[in-house]
Design goal:
Layout: H1 2-21, H2 30-87
Length: 93
């Protein structure tokens, strides 16, 4: 979703800011390590949510595709009945 993508962008910005502001060896910078750890955890959570959302979307699309033949048949039936009045006025309703 858009919210997950925004969170990923925010994480990326925080990581880049931390990396650009770090002085010396990054492995010795506790704040940078903490930011990277938090980013990894949050990124994994968002990835899991995205996988669930994609699976749900796939199921919805499959279910919707199952109704398309019925919808097509119903629309043909509706317009045939609606046009019966043009054939004979007895079929007006």
């Amino acid at each position: 979703s858009a919210q997950n993508k925004k969170q990923l962008k925010d994480i990326e910005d925080r990581i880049l800011e931390t990396l650009s502001s770090s002085q010396g060896n990054i492995l010795e910078d506790e704040m940078a390590i903490q930011v990277l750890d938090e980013a990894k955890v949050l990124s994994n959570e968002i990835g899991a949510k995205q996988r669930v959302a994609e699976e749900t979307s796939r199921k919805i699309n499959e279910t919707r595709a199952g109704y398309q033949p019925i919808a097509k048949h119903s629309s043909v039936l509706f317009f045939v009945i609606a046009d019966l009045a043009n054939i004979d006025p007895m079929y007006q309703y």
